[in-house]
Design a protein that fits this description.
The chain is about 35% helix and about 25% strand. The N terminus is likely disordered. The longest helix is centred in the last third of the chain and has 14 residues. It is elongated, with a radius of gyration of 27 Å. The chain is built from 17 helices and 22 strands. Helix 4 packs across helix 7.
C-alpha cells in the first residue's frame, strides 16, 4: 500500500499531460514533466523511437496503473511559439466535423518544413503569444456581384483602421495574384503561397501571431492555418469554387466552410463574395443565417445558344464548329477565346489556323477560362454538353456557375450544345433559377438540406457507400456512428464534391 501511494505521489509531483503528436492517432499519449507546462506549449518528445514536436493539449486527469511506463517530456524550452487557444479550437472543429484525427489536422497546420523553419530562428521573445480580444461583428454577408473589388477594399480599410488583420481566401493561387493587382497599392497585401520562402513564411506567422501590425493576407485554403492573433475580417472570394475542398490527404475539409468557423472563433466579419453563389450559401441566406447583399448581379454579355443537332441536319457544322460560330469569329475584331470541351487542343488549333490564319485565338479548357483576368470580344463553348455529369446531383448548379462565370469575361458568348432547351442556358440571366434548384434538392433530400458522407476503399479510392445524413442536432452523433462502423479500414469523406 505504501509503495502504491508513493508511486501515485511521484506522478502527481511530476505532472502528467496529454500531448498532441503529428501522427494519425485516435488517442492522446500521456507524458510526464517535472515542470509546469502551458496549454498550447510545444515540447520535444520521443514516441516509438522517433523524436517529435508535440503540443500540450491538457493536464491529464488519469493516474497511470502500476507498472505502466510513462515517458517523460524531452525538451521543454524549444523556443517555439505556443499554439493559441483559437488555433486549437479550429483544429478540434476540423477533426470532429471531418472525422479525422487531431494529429492529421496538426500535420496540415504545421508540416515538418514549417516547424523546422521555426526552430531555425534566433529570437525566442514571442514564445508565448499575447491574448487579444476578439471582435464582435454582425451576421456573415453573401456579397453577390460581378465586380467585388471595391466592396472588399472598403471592408479591408475598416478592418485595418480598427487595428485588425484581414484574410482574403481564394480558391487557387492564380486568383490571389489577380486580386492583389486589383486591390492596388493601397494595402500592403501579402500573397501566401509557395513563392514565399520558409523564412518569409515564418516572419509572416510571427507578425500575425503578435498582431503588432494589421496585415492583409491573400491565400488559398492553407492560409487558414496561419496563427492570427488579431483577425477582424475573413473574405472568401469565388465562394462556390470546388477547389476549396481538400481531396487528399486528410483532413478532407472545405476551405470555405472552415473559413466561416475561423471567422466565428475570432469574432471577425465574414464576407462570401461571388457572382454565382453556391446553393449552400443561398440557403443560409434564406434561413437567416447570412445576409444577402446584391452589388450588381447582371452582365452585359450577349449569349447565343446554338443547337448542334439542328445545325447538322442542315449541314451547318464544319467539324466541331457551327457555321454560325464561324461567322461570328470572322466578324470579330477583338480577342477570340474557344473553350474546347471534348476536342483536343491540337485539332482546334489546326482548324482555326486553316480557317483564320490572320487571327490568334485563345484555346482554353473550361477551368482555365474561369481564371482569366482579361476579357474577350467573343468566347465560345464548342460542346457545352461536356459541362453536365448525369452522375453528379450538383451538375446543373456547377454548369450554371461556369457559364455565368464565362459571361463575365466576354462581350459575346456562343454556347454550342445538343440540348438548347436545357433550363441552365435560359437561366444565365435569370438569378431566380437557384430557387428551383433548391426546391429540387429539398424534394430529393439532397444538400444543403442534408449532409453527405462518402465511404471509400482506402487502397483503391473507389466509392463503397454513400450515406445521406439528416441536417439536425443529431448530425455529430450520426457521423460518430459511421466513424465507429468503418474505422481506419476506409476513407470517410464528409461533404464530398
Amino acid at each position: 500500500m505504501v509503495k502504491i501511494r508513493f508511486f501515485v505521489r511521484i506522478f502527481a509531483l511530476m505532472g502528467l499531460y496529454n500531448l498532441l503528436l503529428p501522427l494519425k492517432l485516435d488517442w492522446l499519449p500521456v507524458y510526464s514533466c517535472d515542470s509546469e507546462l502551458r496549454i498550447g506549449q510545444r515540447v520535444e518528445v520521443n514516441f516509438s523511437g522517433r523524436d517529435y514536436t508535440a503540443v500540450v493539449i491538457r493536464k491529464s486527469e488519469e493516474t497511470p496503473e502500476r507498472g505502466y511506463r510513462v515517458l517523460e517530456v524531452g525538451t521543454v524550452e524549444t523556443g517555439l511559439a505556443d499554439i493559441s487557444e483559437r488555433e486549437l479550437k479550429l483544429w478540434k472543429f476540423i477533426s470532429e466535423y471531418y472525422l479525422c484525427t487531431l494529429g492529421e489536422v496538426y500535420m496540415a497546420a504545421y508540416p515538418k518544413y514549417k516547424v523546422k523553419s521555426e526552430k531555425s530562428r534566433n529570437s525566442k521573445s514571442d514564445a508565448v503569444a499575447p491574448k487579444t480580444p476578439a471582435r464582435s461583428c454582425g451576421k456573415p454577408v453573401l456579397y453577390r456581384a460581378a465586380s467585388r473589388t471595391d466592396y472588399y477594399r472598403e471592408n479591408i480599410s475598416r478592418c485595418l483602421a480598427d487595428g485588425y488583420s484581414a484574410l482574403v481566401l481564394v480558391p487557387e493561387v492564380e486568383f490571389a495574384l489577380n486580386l492583389k493587382r486589383e486591390l492596388g497599392e493601397e494595402f500592403e497585401a501579402v500573397v501566401y503561397d509557395n513563392a514565399l520562402t520558409a523564412a518569409k513564411k515564418r516572419k509572416l506567422a510571427e507578425k500575425l501571431r503578435t498582431g503588432e501590425k494589421p496585415m492583409v493576407v491573400i491565400g488559398a485554403r492553407s492560409a487558414l492555418f496561419l496563427p492570427f492573433g488579431r483577425l477582424g475580417l475573413v473574405i472568401v472570394d469565388e465562394e462556390q469554387e470546388s477547389s476549396y475542398k481538400q481531396p487528399e490527404p486528410a483532413p478532407r475539409y472545405n476551405g470555405r466552410d472552415v473559413a466561416c468557423v475561423l471567422a466565428s472563433i475570432h469574432g471577425a466579419q465574414l464576407v462570401l463574395g461571388t457572382f454565382t453563389p453556391s446553393l449552400e450559401s443561398l440557403y443560409n441566406c434564406k434561413i437567416g443565417k447570412y445576409s444577402l447583399v446584391d452589388g450588381g448581379s447582371e452582365t452585359d454579355c450577349t449569349v447565343e445558344v446554338v443547337d448542334i443537332n439542328a445545325e447538322r441536319r442542315k449541314h451547318g457544322m464544319v467539324g466541331d464548329f457551327s457555321r454560325k460560330l464561324l461567322s461570328r469569329i470572322r466578324k470579330t475584331d477583338g480577342q477570340v477565346s474557344i473553350i474546347r470541351s471534348y476536342s483536343t487542343e491540337q485539332s482546334v488549333c489546326e482548324f482555326l489556323e486553316k480557317e483564320f490564319p490572320e487571327k490568334d485565338p485563345q484555346i482554353l479548357t473550361a477551368q482555365a477560362a474561369k481564371k482569366m483576368a482579361g476579357r474577350s470580344a467573343l468566347m465560345a463553348v464548342l460542346n457545352a454538353d461536356s459541362l453536365f455529369d448525369s452522375q453528379d446531383f450538383r451538375s446543373d448548379e456547377k454548369a450554371l456557375q461556369l457559364v455565368r462565370s464565362l459571361s463575365l469575361h466576354s462581350d459575346v458568348l456562343v454556347v454550342q450544345c445538343t440540348l438548347p432547351a436545357h433550363p441552365v442556358y435560359s437561366a444565365i440571366s435569370d438569378i431566380s433559377f437557384e430557387d428551383k434548384l433548391l426546391t429540387e434538392r429539398k424534394q430529393f433530400r439532397m444538400p444543403p438540406f442534408t449532409r453527405i458522407v462518402d465511404i471509400k476503399d482506402r487502397k483503391t479510392g473507389m466509392l463503397v457507400d454513400r450515406k445521406i445524413l439528416k441536417r439536425d442536432a443529431s448530425l455529430s452523433e450520426q457521423k460518430s456512428r459511421l466513424q465507429m462502423q468503418y474505422g481506419a479500414l476506409y476513407i470517410i469523406d464528409v461533404d464530398p464534391l
